[in-house]
Write a structure and sequence with these properties.
single chain, globular, binds S-adenosyl-L-homocysteine, binds iron/sulfur cluster, binds FE3-S4 cluster
């Protein structure tokens, strides 16, 4: 797809936005009330970023956001990475059906990863016929057009694309925080880990042009953003398929030069593609945070092979060693799956061994969930739930022990903290984050929000610190 097609699409969508905007303005003049929308986001940071794009389009049309589910327009941006993500959505949908009985004009839209699965869409058509609009992960930019179709036709509007090579730039976006922002650097995934549904629902890997990324971040910085999170399923393979290939480390070097950006984060890093060049760039950088999320998935080389992860236990441990040799203070976090088909007690012990050796600062642990259509789902040796659960509990204990130790490293030192919000439990406190992502609470007020300040870390409280602002 050439650039002009994408620009044409963006222009076309702006026309739909403007058409609806004029219509909404007329309605507002008559009624004096603005229409409201409510968006519920499930899943990962990719979805969170997509929801900002959805919000951006709706606000431009003239909708106002509300926390209440009794809005005129409800959108569920769904996730399907594990079965319980789907179950949450079905549960919430049941509720929406009841709400809509009392408010028949309500428009309900479902989008996101779950919608990319034909069986899900069938089920919704059969059992949740009150849904108005269904779209997927590849055509969010078309929301105004789909809404327009729905308002004109009064029938179910479904628009699902199997995959795409389009990246539509320059559509509106509504950022959740004024001081930090997620920035997509790539979409999709080509890795096909055998348990994972993401490549099927997010399509093939596509990198954005570095110029577009730099331009977006430059604008964000002008707008007061100090911290950015670069988003991709495997940021370490960024740029490989661009007409003028560029590495992720080179991209970081360019982003680093943007004035106003103080902190750079990214996720996720696949261990197989993490280069020495990246370690070098990170270790020299003033702005790239002291944090690396490096999903392990399993410590057993045998299982890693069946998972199609393309590294071994030894390879992973060696990588961690190389990272720590250059960045001794780095915070390492990870994702681990237990109960993958055929996992033996020995395999699981290998995972525990890596956890003990690496001492992750924190880890997201998951029980394997069978995702229809993935190779692992049709493997015969699925693990019994009780066995997986028992291993999960043992793993969690191990992980938590490390996590507590991790929050002692900076105790009694002064560290830079980006203040994010007023503390939810105690409003005399503010909450912020260290470069390594650990939370700190300290006395302060809303004037500090969005600023990077020096804080003395008085005491570690297990998973966070209590500190004092250094004047
Ligand atoms: N691209 C990222 C991960 C995205 S999904 C990466 O490669 O690291 C986030 C996490 O969900 C994965 O790291 C994995 O630990 C977990 N996950 C993915 N599929 C799963 C499944 N079928 N069952 C359980 N956990 C799963
Ligand atoms: Fe899923 Fe693997 Fe791609 Fe991550 S790299 S999204 S785990 S297939
Ligand atoms: Fe879920 Fe889709 Fe993210 S399946 S984890 S929301 S990419």
């Amino acid at each position: 797809m050439d650039l002009s097609t994408n620009e044409f699409e963006a222009a076309k969508q702006l026309q739909f936005i403007n058409k609806l905007k004029a219509q909404f303005e007329m309605d507002y003049e008559k009624t004096g009330v603005r229409k409201t929308y409510h968006i519920e986001t499930f899943g990962c940071q990719m979805n969170a970023r997509d929801s900002e794009k959805i919000s951006g389009i709706l606000k431009q049309i003239g909708y106002e956001e509300t926390d209440s589910e009794e809005a005129d327009f409800i959108i569920f941006n769904t996730c399907t990475v594990r079965e319980n993500a789907n179950n949450k959505v079905y549960g919430r949908l049941g509720n929406l059906g009841k709400l809509k009985k009392n408010k028949p004009d309500m428009i309900i839209a479902l989008c996101g990863c779950m919608m990319q699965e034909p069986t899900v869409v069938e089920k919704i058509k059969q059992s949740y016929s009150f849904v108005d609009i269904i779209f997927g992960t590849h055509n969010i930019f078309k929301l105004a057009e789909l809404l327009n179709t729905r308002l004109e036709s009064d029938r179910l509007v479904i628009d699902l694309w199997k995959d795409t090579d389009m990246i539509v730039e320059n559509l509106p976006s509504d950022r959740k925080y004024p001081f930090k922002a997620g920035v997509n650097i790539m979409f999709g995934c080509n890795n096909f880990c055998s348990y994972c549904i993401v490549p099927y629902v997010r399509g093939r890997e596509r990198s954005r042009n570095p110029e577009d990324i730099i331009a977006e971040i430059t604008e964000l910085a002008k707008d007061g953003v100090v911290e950015i999170m670069l988003l991709g399923q495997n940021v370490n393979s960024y740029g490989k398929n661009l007409p003028n290939p560029i590495t992720f480390a080179q991209l970081l070097t360019e982003i680093e030069q943007i004035n106003g950006i103080e902190r750079i984060r990214f996720m996720t890093s696949h261990p197989k593609d993490l280069s020495d060049e990246l370690i070098e760039v990170m270790s020299k950088s003033e702005k790239i945070c002291d944090h690396l999320h490096l999903p392990l998935q399993s410590g057993s080389s045998r299982l890693l092979k069946i998972m199609n992860r393309q590294y071994t236990k030894e390879g992973y441990l060696d990588l961690v060693e190389r990272i720590r040799a250059k960045m001794p203070h780095i915070s390492l976090t990870t994702d681990i799956i237990v109960g993958f088909p055929g996992e033996t007690e020995e395999d699981f012990e290998e995972t525990l061994d890596v956890v003990r050796k690496v001492k992750f600062d924190s880890a997201f642990t998951f029980i394997y969930s069978r995702r229809t259509g993935t190779p692992a789902a049709s493997m015969e040796n699925q693990i019994e739930e009780s066995v997986a659960k028992e291993r999960f509990d043992r793993l969690l204990k191990e992980v938590q022990a490390n996590q507590k130790m991790a929050v002692t490293k900076e105790e009694k030192t002064v560290q830079k903290v980006l203040v994010e919000e007023i503390n939810r439990q105690d409003t005399s406190l503010v909450t912020g984050r260290l470069s390594n992502n650990i939370l700190v609470h300290f006395k302060g007020d809303s004037s500090l929000i969005g600023k990077i300040v020096d804080v003395y870390l008085d005491e570690n409280k297990g998973f966070y610190y209590i500190g004092t602002l250094v004047k």
